[in-house]
Amino acid sequence: MSATGQNHSNLGKVAVLMGGASAEREVSLMSGTGVLAALRSQGVDAHAFDPAERDLVELKREGFARCFIALHGRFGEDGTVQGALELLGIPYTGSGVMASSIAIDKIMTKRVWIAEGVPTPKYRLLAQGSIDRRQVIEVPDELGLPVIVKPAREGSSIGVNKVEGYSGMVEAVDAVLRLDSQVLCEAFIEGDEVTCPVLGTGDEAQALPVIRIVAPEGNYDYQNKYFTDTTQYLVPCGLPAGEEEAIQALVLKAYRVLGCRGWGRIDVMIDKATRKPYLLEINTSPGMTSHSLVPMSARAAGLSYEALCLRLLQAAALDNAPGAPQP
């Protein structure tokens, strides 16, 4: 029984998947710890489960009825865990196998968005094994300076470099190749940085309030995301009239065309000169730490952290179960 007298035993035994083997393990443990406490406070029979330390088959053996995925990055947000849970027949939070595997890959996400008319910054892909110095040096000629250089399949701003001149390109690309075999070079958009969470599936999906991010010197990196208090998060976002609604509509379209379900968060840059929004990436298993943005936006919409966690868990589903919700 929860502190509010609610009993959610109908949800069964719940595993909060946290930790994992990705570069975002530390953040995932923070997210999972928060989610676990929130679900328990609501009367849910929730337990921590770290896939890096335990075999997923134990979920079935120990009678878990559903999973809250608080894993971030590879092996948790990329369709692999989702596929395993599909085979085990255990419903889980967030997007299914296909949407997760596309969304973790920024290149594939861009290709889908571009095909569907969703604006995203101009880019160039450099793939390990086919990169020569000439190609690297030519990137600024194509995209202009500064250039954002980052791994195609990492999150939490891990490995992201802002390159100001030609001389920094080779070093930035080499740094990314230590994390990923695919290097995404992206045109830098100067302007407001915002993010917009989405809850729900298909036509029922709704965009939450937009958050405007003001980071020290405009550098919203891993450290400033999770371990400092100097970054400002503005909600209400204070954007000009009509811009927030336009971004919410665009984000909903981008979420739906990827086939996402449950929840997600899309990061956006607004060009300072034209006020045109450009979508950067989507997170299908967003952070749930004390610094995280989905809980912040949900709170502005009147949804507490505990209520958010419970809502996400109640929406846990399988791609291939009879009557499963369709994105």
From TrEMBL:
It is found in: Cytoplasm. One of its GO terms (cellular component) is cytosol. Keywords: ATP-binding, Cell shape, Cell wall biogenesis/degradation, Cytoplasm, Ligase, Magnesium, Manganese, Metal-binding, Nucleotide-binding, Peptidoglycan synthesis. Mg(2+) 2 binds at E281, N283. It catalyses: 2 D-alanine + ATP = D-alanyl-D-alanine + ADP + phosphate + H(+). Residues 110-314 form the ATP-grasp domain. Its EC number is 6.3.2.4. Cell wall formation. Belongs to the D-alanine--D-alanine ligase family. The keyword ATP-binding applies. The keyword DNA-binding does not apply. GO terms for biological process: cell wall organization; peptidoglycan biosynthetic process; regulation of cell shape. It holds the Pfam family Dala_Dala_lig_C. Gene3D superfamilies: 3.40.50.20, ATP-grasp fold, A domain, ATP-grasp fold, B domain. Binds 2 magnesium or manganese ions per subunit. Its cofactor is Mn(2+); Mg(2+). The active site is at E24, S156, S292. Mg(2+) 1 binds at D267, E281. This is D-alanine--D-alanine ligase. Pathway: Cell wall biogenesis; peptidoglycan biosynthesis. SUPFAM superfamilies: Glutathione synthetase ATP-binding domain-like, PreATP-grasp domain.
